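Retry 2 of 3 after timeout on previous attempt. Resubmitting structure tokens to design endpoint.
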């Protein structure tokens, strides 16, 4: 009934990696899956990428999406590229961004802890907890 079933063509359109449906929406093509298909992204990695992006954006004084968009980060967290070539193959990762952020992203994907270079001591370091109550009477 259906034509061409089972035959693989090199000129294949973007397909959902989850269900195999042909993708027509630009956003879905970026994700390489349907918007509503369950995603297989590495949530831990995605979270770290987002943290890293926020830090980067802050350093650059630019909005987060100027570093990478959410969809690009998701695609990275799904693909988990191991090389620059793989990273470059992810939609949204242009040559310029690859040069600027490629090493960081690959390090994150490799599971490395990326400690953003601190330009001097920060006055408001993250409270480790417990420090808040000091200095004030804890009596009720
Ligand atoms: Zn799908």
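Retry 2 succeeded. Sequence:
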């Amino acid at each position: 009934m259906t034509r061409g079933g089972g035959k693989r063509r090199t000129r294949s359109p973007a397909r959902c990696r989850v269900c195999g449906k042909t993708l027509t929406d630009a956003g879905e093509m970026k994700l390489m899956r349907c918007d509503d298909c369950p995603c297989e992204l590495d949530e831990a990695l995605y979270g770290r990428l987002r943290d890293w992006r926020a830090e980067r954006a802050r350093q650059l004084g630019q909005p987060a999406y100027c570093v990478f968009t959410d969809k690009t980060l998701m695609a990275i967290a799904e693909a988990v590229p191991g090389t620059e070539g793989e990273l470059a193959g992810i939609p949204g990762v242009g040559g310029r961004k690859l040069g600027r952020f490629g090493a960081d992203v690959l390090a994150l994907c490799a599971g490395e802890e990326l400690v953003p270079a601190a330009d001097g001591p920060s006055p408001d370091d993250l409270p480790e907890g417990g420090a808040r109550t000091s200095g004030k009477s804890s009596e009720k």
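Attempt log closed. The radius of gyration is 21 Å.
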